C-alpha cells in the first residue's frame, strides 16, 4: 500500500483526510496537527509522500518542508493551503515542495496527485550526521550544542544542507530565504552567509561552508 504522512491542524479535515486515504488504499502511519509532532513521529517511518498544511499553529509549513529536506528526506511534499496566490505558490515551491493544492479541493484530485508524486519519487539521501534543524524554534542542533537562527538564516542553511556537496547558486538561496520579488543585494546575501558561518563555528562546524566565487555556496 502507498504510505502517506499527514500534518493538518484542522481536526475535521485531518480526520477526513486520514479516513478517506485509508479507504483509497493508502497506509497512514502519521496523521498529526503540528510540524513538531510530525518531526517526532517520522523517525523509523518511511512515508512515500507527505501532505502538509502550510498554515500550521507552530511552524510555517514551508519551513517544515525545508527542515525535512535538510534531514536528507527527498520524499515528495504536497502542500494544502487556503492561500493560492502566485506569490504563495512560488514560495512553496522554492521551499522544496513538489505540488500545491489550494483549499477547497476535490478529494479525488488529491488522490490522483499523491499517486503521481509517488510514481515520480526517487530514493532518499542520508541525513547529515549530527545536524538537526527545528523549524518551530528555528534552532540548529549538533548533539548537545545548539544555536538560534533567524528565519532567513534557517531557510538558507536548510537549502544548503538539502543539497550538501552541491553548489547552490546565489539566486536559489535568495529564492528560498526571501519572499518572491524581494530586492536582495549581493552584499546582503554575503552578510547572511558570514552570520551562518559564525553560528556554525559556535557549534563546532567551522569551515563547512565554501564560497564558489561568482556562483554561490556549498556545504560539506
UniProtKB/TrEMBL annotation:
Pfam families in the record: Response_reg, Trans_reg_C
Annotated PROSITE patterns: OMPR_PHOB, RESPONSE_REGULATORY
SMART domains with a match to the protein in the record: REC (SM00448), Trans_reg_C (SM00862)
Modified positions (4-aspartylphosphate) in chain numbering: 53
Molecular function GO terms recorded: phosphorelay response regulator activity; transcription cis-regulatory region binding
Domain OmpR/PhoB-type intervals: 122-220
Domain Response regulatory residues, every copy: 3-118
GO biological process: regulation of DNA-templated transcription
Full protein name: DNA-binding response regulator
Species classification: Bacteria, Bacillati, Actinomycetota, Actinomycetes, Streptosporangiales
Amino acid at each position: 500500500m502507498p504510505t502517506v504522512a499527514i500534518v493538518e491542524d484542522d481536526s475535521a479535515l485531518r480526520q477526513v483526510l486520514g479516513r478517506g486515504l485509508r479507504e483509497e488504499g493508502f497506509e497512514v502511519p502519521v496523521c498529526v496537527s503540528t510540524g513538531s509532532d510530525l518531526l517526532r513521529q517520522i523517525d523509523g517511518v518511511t512515508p512515500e509522500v507527505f501532505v502538509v498544511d502550510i498554515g500550521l499553529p507552530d511552524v510555517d509549513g514551508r519551513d517544515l518542508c525545508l527542515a525535512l529536506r535538510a534531514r536528507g528526506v527527498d520524499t515528495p511534499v504536497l502542500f494544502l493551503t487556503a492561500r493560492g496566490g502566485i506569490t504563495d505558490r512560488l514560495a512553496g515551491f522554492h521551499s522544496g515542495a513538489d505540488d500545491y493544492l489550494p483549499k477547497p479541493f476535490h478529494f479525488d484530485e488529491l488522490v490522483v496527485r499523491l499517486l503521481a508524486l509517488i510514481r515520480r519519487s526517487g530514493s532518499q539521501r542520508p541525513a547529515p550526521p549530527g545536524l538537526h534543524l527545528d523549524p518551530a524554534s528555528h534552532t540548529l542542533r549538533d548533539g548537545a550544542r545548539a544555536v538560534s537562527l533567524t528565519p532567513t538564516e534557517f531557510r538558507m542553511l536548510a537549502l544548503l544542507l538539502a543539497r550538501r556537496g552541491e553548489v547552490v547558486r546565489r539566486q536559489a538561496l535568495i529564492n528560498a530565504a526571501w519572499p518572491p520579488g524581494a530586492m536582495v543585494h549581493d552584499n546582503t546575501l554575503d552578510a547572511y552567509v558570514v552570520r551562518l558561518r559564525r553560528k556554525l563555528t559556535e557549534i563546532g562546524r567551522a569551515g563547512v561552508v565554501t564560497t564558489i566565487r561568482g556562483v554561490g555556496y556549498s556545504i560539506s
